[in-house]
Amino acid sequence: MSENKTAATIEEIMKERVFEVDKIAKFSSEQAQKNFFYETERTVGAIWCLEPGQDLYVHSHSAVDDIWVCIQGEGVYYPDLENEIPIKAGMILLAKPNQIHGMLNTGTENFMFVGFACGDNPATMDITKYERKTK
User: Fold this and answer.
1) What is the pTM of this model?
2) How far apart (Å, rounded) are the C-alpha atoms in residues 77 and 69?
3) What is the residue-wise DSSP string for 62-88?
């Protein structure tokens, strides 16, 4: 019994399923950069790049989990409008639906994290922005 399946070449597999951070990541002195590298109906992946002093605004999403895997640098994570959590490469952060999150690169080097939005149609996820309370 033979099936007529078309075997994908290793090059096709790599193009669709293997990603290189240094070919995706782009920084800008203007503002934090979100560099998308894949999208499906259930998940969106992007590499966020922040230069020293840049921030990713405090926000939430109503129907997706937002998972961040820190791969370079250090900063602070905002889990709400008042608190800060020191973060660095090697840490994984999770914001469930409606949980506030954001961050600031407080280090002297560039900060990068891989972000995954997972849930109901993450490509069109809503974003609610907030203003942090200053102490």
Assistant:
1) 0.88
2) 12
3) SSEEEEEEEEE-EEEEESSSS--EEEE
What digits encode the pLDDT tens for the residues 19-40? Answer: 999 999 999 999 999 999 999 9
Residue 1's pLDDT is what?
A: 47
Q: Does 7 reside within a domain?
A: no
Neighbours of 35 (CB within 10 A): 18
Name the pLDDT band for 3 (thresholds 50, 70, 90): low
Q: Please tell me the total count of domains within the chain.
A: 1
Confirm if 123 and 70 have CB atoms less than 8 A apart: no
**Domain span including residue 90:** 45-122
For residue 8, give both structure tokens. 């994908």
